[in-house]
Model the fold of this input.
Amino acid sequence: MAGEFQRARSEEQREVRRQAILRVAADMVEEMPVADLTLNELSRRVGFAKSNVLRYFESREAVLLELLDSAWQDWLRRVATELPRSVDANEPVGARYQRVASVVTASLVDDRPFCELISVSAAVLERNISIDVARRYKLAAITNINAYAELVRRALPELGEQGAFNFSAGTQVAIAGIWPLAQPSEAMLCVYDDPALAQLRLDFATALEEMLASLLAGCLARWPATASVIPDRAGGDSDPININGS
Done:
């Protein structure tokens, strides 16, 4: 417990305690909104004094940024499995880009902690951290975005590197924008009962899939891969990309 805390005497011991703190924080994010997770409650559940938790993480936000990176890793593993399984390389690009949007959306709709952490990352989690933590987080973020972009390009080789990167970054922006709007308060739910206002209520899955499909269509049109990296089925040069047909 807090009164029995002993300083870790090796890097291995420090890492064990860091991981213990992260596990407890992850359990808390599963059961409560991120806004309700306090350093005091985290410390109580871990069994450390708050000052001792701060030996391993400089702030609540630093803990949550590490959780966000871990959530990215878990999500990327799921996407890496689902995209090849669900997207038929023999289908025309017009069918494949919509299928990619559908698969990505399906991978997110039941992952509330990941979506919520993304939705508060810029406005909340990036605000109470040091330059070192901020840099470490952004280096991890760019690695994750690039990994996601590569997964999408494997399913859509017609998409150029810049387009894949922009779509990958845009997915994060779409989640951050749509998720809070799709979690209305009780007052807003009552307002949406008015037929004149009902169309303002967003369903997360529907809105996200439409946004991602539109974003992919735009990226395919604006940043296509060069013909040299898009062989046709017979091994020759490809025709210009037609996202509405074959």
Observations:
- The CA atoms of residues 81 and 139 lie 24 Å apart.
- DSSP finds ten helices and no strands in the chain.
